[in-house]
Design brief:
The protein is an all-alpha fold. It has 8 helices and no strands. The protein has a domain of 121 residues: Globin-like, CATH 1.10.490.10. The chain is 45% helix and 0% strand. It is globular, with a radius of gyration of 16 Å. This is Hemoglobin. GO terms for molecular function: heme binding; metal ion binding; oxygen binding; oxygen carrier activity. InterPro entries: GlbO/GLB3-like, Globin-like_sf, Globin/Proto, Hemoglobin_trunc.
Amino acid sequence: MTSPSGPLFDSAAAPLPPRTNLGMPQAGAPAHGAPSPGGTSPDGTGQPLSPVPGWVGDGYDEDQSAFEGTFYHQVGGRETFRRLAEKFYEGVAADPGFRAMYPEEDLYPAQMRLQMFLEQYWGGPGTYSQRRGHPRLRMRHMPFPVDSAARDAWLRHMRAAVEALDLPPLQAETLWDYFDRAAHSLQNRPG
């Protein structure tokens, strides 16, 4: 359904926070697309990773109380969407057939992009658009073959992620309805 090298989960996105603190970016994190913290640049030059500019103060560190009354806030804010994205990508990593759709060796950058997108969609910080522009989901998925098998695999992993949140039924169903409709709308190949 999604691909970290596809535009929605594009590997050319802005730098990401360190994997030691998935929900709260910190200065000194590795450059986007880089190996684990403390490594060298992914371009093969062996240069040390550069610090992450702009995470603090770019909207991602906003006071979470600013989102009171939104679905984002009602379901638990950043922590809930961090857990959702993390659980989803755990499922992707454990599914060799579906994992093959994700060319990046490290799924963490895609996990962070999904988290930021969902936070914004449900009324949280607008960091996703600040960094990546308008989501344009359908357009960004067109280069990737999303058939019914890919759609169903994506939905299976997302269902497990939603269920792992143990949200009240109405909130869980609200999330699931969105994911089900989005997955079906992004299918771009027959079969």
